Amino acid sequence: MxxxxxxxxxxxxxxxxxxxxKLHRVFIVTDGFMSSSGKVSYITDELDKAGAEYxxxxxxxxxxxxxxxxxxxxxILEFKPDAVIAFGGGSPIDAxxxxxxxxxxxxxxxxxxxxxxxxxxxxxxxxxRFAVITDPEKEVKYPLVEDSLLPDVAILDAVxxxxxxxxxxxxxxxxxxxxxxxxxxxxxxxxFSDAAAEKSIKLVRKHLLTAYREPENxxxxxxMHNASCLAGIAFSNSGxxxxxxxxxxxxxxxxxxxxRANGILLxxxxxxxxxxxxxxxxxxxxxxxxxxxxxxxxxxxxxxxxNLIRTARKYVEQFHIPSSIQVAGVNKxxxxxxxxxxxxxxxxxxxxxxxxxxxxxxxxxxxxxxAYIGKLP
Length: 377
Ligand SMILES: NC(=O)c1ccc[n+]([C@@H]2O[C@H](COP(=O)([O-])OP(=O)(O)OC[C@H]3O[C@@H](n4cnc5c(N)ncnc54)[C@H](O)[C@@H]3O)[C@@H](O)[C@H]2O)c1
Ligand SMILES: [Zn+2]
Description:
There is one protein chain. By secondary structure, this protein is α/β, with parallel strands linked by helices. The protein folds into 2 domains: 9-161, Rossmann fold (3-Layer(aba) Sandwich); 166-373, Dehydroquinate synthase-like - alpha domain (Dehydroquinate synthase-like, alpha domain). It contains 14 helices and 8 strands. It has a 6-stranded parallel sheet with strand order 1-8-5-4-2-3, with helices on both faces. Strands 6-7 form a two-stranded antiparallel ribbon. The longest helix has 23 residues, at 191-213. It is globular.
């Protein structure tokens, strides 16, 4: 059995002005920067006009942890909203999803509308059934995967992303590319998730570099915002793969931003999946198909797959993303000390389950070692 669904209503270029008059008590989840910089007025101005009451919960930090979610659950249960607005990058959106998910264990939240307003173009969390929460003590990132986490509405307004600094544009842009690639080769991919992922990857090719170099180019910003959302639709249905399983393990231990961890690992994971160092696997053919989409086709499957891996590598260079875990500043002794636990966490990660090539702990250890020193075939 295979299925595909998009539950979230997607509004582009705004939309809050039409939703706000129907809202009465709104719980806004955001991070400290979005709140202190005044950017949250994008939401509160409309709520003020509509006369709605609201409370701002701005305690979310990058990679939201269990303690923040617990604090959020206490606050939401006390405030009793009829709507939640998640405003920010993937961190506030994931935190808001987890807060509603756990609050629903104590109180009926089914009538509480969930509106996601992304301000980065990366995670696709505004349309995905995923929320990633970190346990800092165990140094593990847990992806919750539930239909009940799907937002009711996503507002895609690229104007909000014009202030995203180039390094965050790079990290989040590589995250989009990784989502699309992993969705296209996932064991649970189907024609419908492929359609969303293919469009996403074409938009990334067209707009990512411009969005990075010209932050205020709104055509490029909207292109990347749509690409991020389309990749979210794709992977929410198809699942992801080993790259995300390893990125969660690496990011949780060494505090590397999510998209950057994906970008560092991507060429090494693709090389493993394609069997570039030994015998080509059937995944190489699927990478060759993606290369064709990007106009990188060559006469042989090996060369086409390699061209796609080189494109991932080129992105890493162009966006000044570290080319290896070592270059990212991870000390060798600390890396070695954490390696075994990271491989186990990556193997157990829910994202790894849909990787197109079955993998063992030994395989993951090898990919991590190659990604540490920067060794590609
Ligand atoms: N739920 C999912 O489907 C999914 C998918 C991938 C990743 N994730 C998770 O999402 C999180 C990463 O999200 P992210 O990459 O969007 O980063 P983020 O939300 O942590 O934001 C990164 C930084 O950018 C800043 N920022 C956000 N919007 C801005 C703007 N408009 N202008 C200026 N600065 C801005 C934030 O304040 C923060 O400092 C990770 O925890 C990751 O595990 C979730
Ligand atoms: Zn991701």
